[in-house]
Amino acid sequence: MSNFRIFKQVPRLLFGENSINRLAELVPAKKDPKDYYVFIIDDVHKDSNIVSRLNLTNADFIEYFPASKKEPATYQVDEIKERIMKEKGNQKPISIIGIGGGSSMDVAKAISVVLCNEGSSSLYQGWDLVPNPGIHKIGIPTVAGSGAEASRTAVLMGKDRKFGINSDFSMFDAIILDRTLIKNVPTNQRFHSGMDCYIHCVESLQGTMINELARGYASKALDLCELVFLADGDDDMLMTASYLGGVSIVNSEVGVCHALSYGLSLELGYRHGYANCIAFDVLEEYYGPYVEKFRKMLKKHNIVLPKGVTKSLDSAALNRMVEMTLRMERPLTNALGENWKQILTPDKILQLYARM
Amino acid sequence: MSNFRIFKQVPRLLFGENSINRLAELVPAKKDPKDYYVFIIDDVHKDSNIVSRLNLTNADFIEYFPASKKEPATYQVDEIKERIMKEKGNQKPISIIGIGGGSSMDVAKAISVVLCNEGSSSLYQGWDLVPNPGIHKIGIPTVAGSGAEASRTAVLMGKDRKFGINSDFSMFDAIILDRTLIKNVPTNQRFHSGMDCYIHCVESLQGTMINELARGYASKALDLCELVFLADGDDDMLMTASYLGGVSIVNSEVGVCHALSYGLSLELGYRHGYANCIAFDVLEEYYGPYVEKFRKMLKKHNIVLPKGVTKSLDSAALNRMVEMTLRMERPLTNALGENWKQILTPDKILQLYARM
C-alpha cells in the first residue's frame, strides 16, 4: 500500500503583479480593538516601498528580522515571541505575516507555532511534534527559490544542529506570489536562492521517495528554473518555479546536497542557498548532468563560487559537519538507498567537504 | 493590479496505489453514535471491490448515483438531500465522500452545499452565491480527467441550462488519487474523460485569462496527457494530469469547446467528456495543432466519434443550444477576447454544430 505522507497544500494563493496590495483579502479581519497582526519582515525592506504598501497600524507588531546576517535560530524565535507577549499583555495576534526569503518566512511559521505551544521552538524541531494548531499565517516571498512559501518546514539553527519544525501547523494558510517584490533582489542572492529551487528539484527527481504527483511539480519547477537561468524566463516564472518546487519537496525529499550544505551553514554560517551552491558544485558523482547545467548557469550569470571554504576549519569543526550530515538519514536514504552509510562514509564526506 | 481570483487548492491529498485504504486518515472521526458519513458512489461500482474497501457501517448513508445515464441534475441533488435528512431525522453527516467520475464528485459537492444552505441546489448555480460553509467532503476519482477533484465547481443540469455551483464551499477538503481505482475503466470512457483534461488544458493555455502559475499546471497536465494517450504514460500520470489540469482550470478558464459542448449535453444528454470530444473535433479554426494531435489520439485508441449528431434536432432545440453557448461569456471572452460576439455569432455557432 502507498505509504506516501498526506500531501499538504497551502489552501489559498494570490498570484500576480502587485497582488501584495490585496493582502486584506487573505488576512482575518480585525473585529476587536485589541486585535493585531504580527509582521516578520526581512530588514532589507525596512525603508522600502514594500512596507509602505502594507497598511500597518500602530496596533500591529512589526519585527524587522536580520535575515541576511545568518540562518535564523531557535533562540531568536523564542526571543521574538517573548517580546510580542510582553508588549501585548499575552494577547495573541490574529495573523502573522512573514515577508522575505525563506528565513523570514520560516521565522513567521515558527512564531506561529510557539505562540500556541509551550516552551522553546527547539522543542518542536522534528516531525509532527507540534500538538496545538498555530496562529493563522501568511507567507509573502520577496526572494524566490526556497519554496518556504509552500512547505510545512521552518528550518532553524539550534545549538548544535540545523533542523526543521515539520508540522501541519507550520504551514501557511495563504501566500502571495507577487513578482514586483523580487525585482530588486541582488544578482547573487537571486541566483543562490533560485538554485535552492533547482537543486532541491534535482534531489527530489533523482531520489527514490517520489511519486508521479510530486514529480509533476518538481519537473515543471526544474523546467522553469532552466528557462529563467539559461534562457529568457521572467520573474513570474521564477516565482512559479519556487512555489511548485516547494510543493514537490513537501511531498518527496532532498538529497546529498542538502545533507552537506547543512554542515556548511552550521560551521561557517553560510546562508542556505549559498551553501547549497557550494556543495552542489562538487557532486558530479551523484547529480552529473545537472551539475554540468548548474555550471553553465553560474557562467551565464557571472557567479564565482569561493574555493577552499573548509580549509580554515579545525578537525573538531569538520567532525561536527560530518555528524550533521550523517544525521540527515531521510535525505540520504532518498538519494542513495537504504545502504547509504556504506556509500557516504565519514571519510567520503570529509573528501567532499575538502573539495568545496 | 493583478485581478486574478484567489487561487484555491484542496489542502490535503493522498496519492498512490491503494491509498483508498487510508480514507480514515482524511475523514473526521466519528465521536457520537449519531455521527455518520454520506457516500455518493457511481452505481457502476455497486458490486465492486471498491465498495468493500470503504469500511461502511450501517449508520452510513450510501447513495449509488446513476452517473452513466446522464449529466447530474439539480433535482437529483435536492431529492438526495431530502432523503438523507428524512432518514437521519435532520441530523447532518460529518463528512460526504464522493466516489466516481466528475458527476458523482460534483453531486457530493452539491449535497455538501445544500445540506448547509436553504432551498434547492439551483439557487446556488453561479459564482460565489453560497453563504454558509458546506459539510466536510472528500473526493475520490475512479475515472480520471474531469479535474472535479481539484475544482470549486459542481456542474449540474438545471431546467434549461447546464451550470456550475462555483464557491469556496464547493471545494473538497481532501482527495485521494489512487491509480488502482481507474484501472478497469472502459477504453472509451477513459478516453473521453482523459480528453476532458486535455481539452480544458488547451483552452486554458490558449486563452487570455491565464497566469504563469496556472500555465505551469496546465502545461504539465497537457504533457502528461500526451504521454498517456500518445506514448506509454501510465495511470499515475493520468491521475496526476487530471488533478493538475483541474487546478489549472480553477485558476484560468475554459474556451470555445466547453461553450459548445454544454449545448450538446443539454439537448442530447451527452456526458461531458464525450460532448467535449465531439465539439473539439470541429474546432481546427481555434485550436489547430491541438485538434491535429487529438485526432492522432483518437486513431491510436481506435475511438470513432459519431457524425451528424445534430441532424435529428429541430430548430427550437438548436436555438436552445445556441443560447446555451452564448451564455458562456467568460469562456468565450477567454478564448476570443472582448469582441467574441462578433466572432462567434449565432450563425457561426449553428455552422459548427452542423459539422458535429
From TrEMBL, chains A, B:
Signal peptide: none annotated. Residues 192-300 form the Fe-containing alcohol dehydrogenase-like C-terminal domain. It comes from the Bacteria. Keywords: Oxidoreductase. GO terms for molecular function: alcohol dehydrogenase (NAD+) activity; metal ion binding. Residues 12-178 form the Alcohol dehydrogenase iron-type/glycerol dehydrogenase GldA domain. Pfam families: ADH_Fe_C, Fe-ADH. This is Iron-containing alcohol dehydrogenase. It comes from Leptospira bouyouniensis. The lineage of its organism: Bacteria, Pseudomonadati, Spirochaetota, Spirochaetia, Leptospirales.
